[in-house]
Design a protein that fits this description.
The chain is of the alpha/beta class and 280 residues long. It contains 10 helices and 7 strands.
């Protein structure tokens, strides 16, 4: 996709974070935008914010829970009847809830799969037939660094993001012969409301492991995503650290495990030392 001018972009999770940053930058380039998210109030706030800057923009909002297949299918059928088939679908809706495996309720595992993985599948499933009929389109699925290198505290979230990766790998092969591109994004920690929510539940070991990693702004992540879309890139790795981590994970394979194990042991030792200090 060489230009975004007049392209119809459907962005899930578009009321905040990376999705909203993508909408803002796409509007700058003359795209038409449809934002989809669950919370109607936040969608209305996002629309108001964007229209203040782009008063002439073609911008619609659609409220649906991406984890609800019948609701998504019905809503997107209506959207396409009114606005046409999206040229660009960005599956940005997602959520993270970390915690140690034995402490996480099963409901969290269900929720991570429902929102992060099945939400991506349901939206894509509703749009792909029309893209195939037209013979063009670009689908962008947003995974996470935890989607290729999972760590302590992310048994629920990371597994769901790995599923997004597996789905995207196969989807790319199936759709490319018919003129539809697929991209897979592995963003690192990004300064969004979702990260603020997530930080409430991170185990201390997880905080220690992620402590030295930088946090990117949504605008930086959005710029790199759009750059990747222009190049029809399959893998999009926002940020220098993400690229290095991805290359090391590919190079080392299972050899990365001793490194992670060492970091976990060191974090646990520090945690125990701090607990002993508090007892004194």
């Amino acid at each position: 996709m060489n230009t975004f001018k007049n392209c119809l972009a459907l962005i899930t999770g578009g009321s905040s974070g990376i999705g909203l940053a993508l909408a803002r930058q796409l509007l700058t380039e003359g795209a038409r935008i449809a934002l989809l998210a669950r919370n109607l109030e936040k969608l209305e706030q996002a629309r108001e914010e964007l229209l203040k800057v782009y008063p002439e923009a073609e911008l619609t909002i659609w409220s649906a829970d991406v984890a609800n297949a019948p609701q998504v299918t019905a809503l997107l059928t209506t959207l396409m009847e009114r606005q046409g088939v999206p040229d660009l679908l960005i599956n940005s809706a997602g959520m993270a809830h970390p915690g140690r495996f034995e402490e996480l309720p099963l409901e969290i595992f269900d929720q991570m799969i429902a929102v992060n993985y099945l939400g991506t599948v349901y939206v894509t499933k509703a749009v792909v037939p029309a893209m195939l009929k037209r013979g063009s389109g670009h689908i962008v699925n947003i995974s996470s660094v935890a989607g290729f290198l999972n760590i302590y505290g992310y048994t629920a979230y990371g597994a769901a993001k790995f599923a997004v990766r597996g789905f995207s790998d196969a989807l790319r092969m199936e759709l490319k012969p018919y003129g539809i591109q697929v991209s897979l994004v592995f963003p690192p920690d990004t300064d969004t409301p979702q990260l603020a929510y997530e930080n409430q539940f991170k185990p201390e070991v997880t905080r220690a492991l992620a402590g030295n990693a930088g946090v990117l702004s949504p605008d930086v992540v959005a710029r790199e995503i759009l750059r990747g879309i222009r190049r029809n890139a399959y893998l999009i790795l926002p940020g220098f650290e993400t690229k290095v981590i991805y290359l090391l994970a590919r190079l080392l394979g299972a050899g990365v495990n001793p490194i992670l194990d060492y970091l976990v042991r060191r974090a646990l030792q520090r945690q125990r030392a701090n607990q002993n200090l508090h007892r004194i």
